[in-house]
Design brief:
Blueprint (H helix, E strand, L loop, with lengths): L1 E8 L5 E7 L5 E6 L6 E7 L8 E5 L1 E3 L7 E5 L5 E2 L2 E2 L10 H4 L5 H15 L1 H16 L3 H10 L3 H7 L10 H16 L7 H19 L1 H10 L2 H21 L4 H5 L12 E2 L5 H31 L12 H6 L4 H9 L15 H5 L6 E4 L4 E8 L2 E8 H33 L9
Parallel strand pairs: 2-7
Antiparallel strand pairs: 1-2, 1-6, 3-4, 4-5, 7-9, 8-10, 11-12, 12-13
The structure holds zinc ion.
Length: 429
């Protein structure tokens, strides 16, 4: 069902028709005035029946009218047409639902799974925060107790197949928590990502351990456990931040695998707050740059025999990686090759976006749904323009890249705990 309502921008008085695709889930609103580019935000609260629908809009006010200068489509799950200037000769439009393509059962199922995840996201956020805080404080007994006794549906369904009595030490607790959190996050993984994580877990790292055992051990021995372990806690914090905004990206998830076939001139999104997504992008960018050294070391072992051999004999590992002019240059250069450990990590970052600070350096074009980032430094001006859809897709890619990195950290810490710290592994045996 499509619902029409009429609004006037609170800043420039421009009138817009909101054409909303009403489904079973609330619709977050993040659109930009086509004239003055001011942010119009809010939510359409679906309530229990069509009579109880309530619109909460900030930045524009509802008016009594049946015409407007522009039409803005709103949908929580489908791509929308970009803002359109209305004219008398407009032909009747298809709904966003009908335009989204033929009904595909698997795709619909994934979409509903994601919408449900977003609706219940508070549980995930709370659980991930608490489990990692407990882990950081070595509260293994409380983690075991939660898995054994929680009445939550997710935990219940896990308990049928897993013996949580085996969560005895910190290593067990770490693995149990990661296993559980990975499952919670499945709806946020675009198609194929879960399989890739499984591949890192069971093929890539294990392959390095088996074929380069002594070089891997040498690497583990010199590894600063605390700084590597820090990522165990830093990455979930990013994931929690991402969960808080992921409901803005549902139309992009729905089109992720066929993103290249989207007509970017025509299609847009009505749920994504550019400001909030820029914050996520910057956090993900820093995290990815900071955590790449581990993958470099593993790649060196795999292809050049030792962690500190970059292909031209051994060098001082830290000195070499600290020698780049910036984190960004380092990231670009170390991932710029066809080694498979860097699959999914290459070409994910843009430093013009990262360096654009403040309002004047991020300009939004609400009518065409473009963002222009500007960097001014030392007399040089760099600009980069990207569509809302491409930027949102980049944020999903960044999240996926971080999940990859996280898996590498887990596997490395697991092997270090067993081989070097001689901890006993009970969970998952
Ligand atoms: Zn306006």
């Amino acid at each position: 069902m499509v619902r029409n309502s009429y609004y006037k921008c609170d800043f420039c008085d421009c009138t817009v028709r909101f054409r909303s695709q009403i489904g079973a889930f609330n619709i977050p609103i993040n659109v930009y005035c086509p004239k003055c580019n001011c942010h119009i935000s809010g939510v359409i609260d679906i309530g229990d029946d069509p009579q109880s629908i309530r619109e909460h809009v900030i930045g524009a006010s509802e008016i009594e009218s049946d015409e407007a200068e522009y039409t803005l489509e709103l949908s929580t799950e489908f791509l929308v047409d970009k803002c359109k200037k209305n004219s008398k000769s407009d032909k009747p439009e298809l709904t966003m639902f009908l335009r989204s393509g033929p009904l595909d059962e698997k795709r619909t199922e994934r979409r509903v799974e994601l919408l449900t995840f977003v609706r219940d996201a508070d549980y995930c956020i709370n659980t991930i925060e608490n489990l990692y805080n407990l882990l950081e404080n070595d509260d293994v007994d409380l983690i075991r107790k939660y898995f054994l006794e929680s009445s939550n549906g997710f935990v219940n369904s896990f308990r049928e197949n897993i013996d949580y009595n085996k969560v005895i030490n910190k290593l067990d607790a770490m693995l149990a928590v990661k296993h559980f959190v990975n499952s919670l996050l499945t709806p946020l993984m675009p198609e194929g990502v879960f399989r890739k994580l499984y591949d890192i877990m069971n093929v890539k790292v294990r392959g390095i351990v088996q074929s380069h055992t002594s070089a891997f051990m040498d690497f583990l021995k010199q590894l600063d456990g605390d700084s590597v372990e820090a990522y165990l806690y830093r990455i979930p914090k990013f994931i929690v931040d991402y969960i808080k905004v992921v409901g803005q990206l549902i139309p992009l998830y729905d089109n992720y695998s066929k993103f290249d076939s989207i007509d970017l001139n025509k299609s847009g999104i009505s749920t994504m707050s550019v400001d909030e997504m820029v914050v996520i992008y910057k956090k993900g960018y820093e995290l990815l740059c900071d955590s790449i050294d581990l993958i470099v070391a593993l790649n060196n072992i795999s292809h050049h025999g030792t962690y500190d051999n970059f292909g031209c004999g051994k060098v001082d590992f830290d000195k070499k990686l600290n020698g780049y002019p910036s984190k960004y240059v380092k990231y670009q250069e170390v991932t710029n090759n066809d080694y498979d450990l860097f699959d999914g990590l290459r070409g994910k970052l843009n430093n013009i976006i990262r360096n654009a600070e403040g309002h004047n350096s991020i300009r939004i074009d609400g009518l065409n749904q473009n963002i222009t980032f500007t960097n001014k430094r030392k007399g040089n001006v760099d600009t980069y323009t990207i569509s809302f859809l491409e930027f949102g897709k980049n944020c999903i890619d960044l999240f996926v890249a971080i999940l990859h990195i996280w898996e590498f950290y887990y596997q490395t810490i697991k092997f270090k705990s067993v081989f070097i710290d001689e901890m006993t592994l009970n969970y998952g045996k």
